[in-house]
Amino acid sequence: MSGQTAATLRRESAALPLIKRVLSWGRYPKTAHHKVHKPAWNDQLPDILRDAAPGSLLPYGLGRSYGDSCLNAGRELIDCRRLNRILGFDESTGMVRCEGGVSLSDIIDVFLPKGWFLPVTPGTRFVTVGGAIANDVHGKNHHCAGTFGAHIRQIGLHRSNDGLVICNLEENRDMLRATTGGLGLTGVIAWADIRLKRVAGPWIDAESIPFQSLNAFLDLSRDSNDRFEYTVAWLDCFAGKNPRGIFFRGNHAADHGKEFHPQRGPKLPFALPAWMLNRYSVRAFNTAYYGIHAAKKGAAVVPYDSFFYPLDSIRQWNLLYGRQGFLQYQCVIPEGNLEAFEELLDRIARSGMGSFLGVLKQFGSAPPAGMLSFPRPGLTIALDFAMRGERTLKLMQSLDEIVQQSSGALYPAKDARMSPALFEASFPRWRDFVPYIDPKISSSFWRRVTGAQ
Amino acid sequence: MTLTAHPTTSLPAATPATAMKKIIILGATSGIALEVQRQLAYQGCELLLVARSPQRLAELQVDLMVRGAQQVLTYRADLAAIQQHVAVFEFARHNFPGFDTVLLAYGSMRDQKESEGSVDVLLEELRVNFVSATAILTLFAADLERRRTGCVAAITSVAGDRGRRSNYVYGSAKGALSLFLQGLRSRLHPAGVRVITIKPGPVQTAMTDHLPNSARFADPQQVARDIVGALERRSPDVLYTPRVWRYIMTAVQQIPETIFKRLPF
User: Fold this and answer.
1) The CATH number of the domain where B106 resides is what?
2) Could you give the strand order of the β-sheet that contains B46-51, starting from the edge strand earlier in sequence?
3) CATH, domain range A2-79
């Protein structure tokens, strides 16, 4: 009963300048928003879009983008998390229609017991379907499955000027390509049809193999990519040009005899003091991590959650980096350019500022699903850096030089500070994307890298 | 392909039925009801959802079926309109026979200032939150009493435990509903019908988004877990959720009126 009366009331109280603190996963930058809309039903979105000023809105999901691509400082957000209903499922094909705010975690909980899994999953299950499309996320199976966007058959997109637009390969194909990887700028994703894939159960046949150089990693990767659906490596970024690491590879396990018990891990209750993460504690962690995995190298049947989402087991792990937050650096460097990659690792090692989350993956050659999709053939690395002010930003700028010179690219979903020039170099065709932007939508990231108002 | 939300869509349940319950939700699109229904669906319950919007009901029906509900029926009605109640009740009796639980989850919380300035608004608030609630519960209570089984549960509010200057219209309607449930409980007790008064503290739902500090309000999932837990057990008669509100309200009720009337909230 209260739905409509409360909605009217909310519209009336919009005149109050409320400052809402919403942060991204990196907790940097610290931003305030003028207003956060929280629609509970898709039928409320046309009004929100219609009543907004030009460039004032941005859809927001679970806030797992690391930098400012999910933020809209000084303006408004549409929190889509209540748009979390499953609108249809076809058991014969595994096609599911979800509202934009449904989380990947929710999809797993509902459909894995029925024998279906996500076609592509990033390293956390706590992202929304809308966010996964808007960032065209990739996973450990990029070399054989491409990005998340490649498995979207159709979307419904709320646009401020033309209502609900259905986009698929036949209708509004360009709008689908713009929205895939479009950073939420093309409209609000009402729902999406996702092709799930059949799996036998929750188990993964996994293998971990220690390696001691970049070439050894590449050999392992090339050797594994046609036999293993999932490949990724953890990297000790303190080791410089010839880094040691652990290569993980796996396939969905055929048997499901074992009983499966999902586990809920601990939660970091508050931001740790910044001094706790320093070059010594992180180096010690990396040594221990390498040691443990090198000791238990080999094959094992492991539950899917520990294979895909090791970090999700510590809720709010982003608080590890203290109150100032952290930055993630994820770039891709074309494969022929190994020297550039080595130089990158060398600079990180010499800075002493790297952290324990070095992730390395060889992308496949699937054509991009979206206009602004990040993955492209080459090696991608993702690293966290605790935010320590100017020092941290300087290091990242020096890494930018290498990326730019080697015709690489930086991942917008992880970024809070790349220059307009590097964005241009990473996405030389971004101007083709501009006509698809919804006039009522903008983001902190977009204004920063393109100078848009 | 059954990819569109449509009232006739029927999908098989995800999990085999265990402890079967047949539950009627009055006000199925309210923020707390949404979470309660989802948890009941995971348990394989059968549901009859009553709300105003056919579109929203159709979306909920598909969602809850995919999540494991054994059966989801929907009925479109404006429960604030008392003349529609008989039709709701007759629909339930004929199409959802043998239901064992009725959960009343609708309510309206308009800005107190509106009620102060308009008797029409005031009466409408009382009618939605109190008068219509007692009317529909009376219909269902008589049926359960006749069948000597089941449970009546209604969401009132901690706001009903003490009149406050900022929210006494909503509070008095919910407080009156709590009193009504108290009496109904002792009336139905001999018939073995349970009556649960659910008193949530402030919860993060569409009803409270406009209030200051709404980010600190209780998580609706937690509140729903408490409610579903109370439906399953034999106790308590009065559920405060989150639990801390039982102690807070006990303390608030001890404050002498001569002091309380001077408090600014």
Assistant:
1) 3.40.50.720
2) B71-76, B46-51, B22-26, B101-104, B151-155, B194-200, B238-241
3) 3.30.43
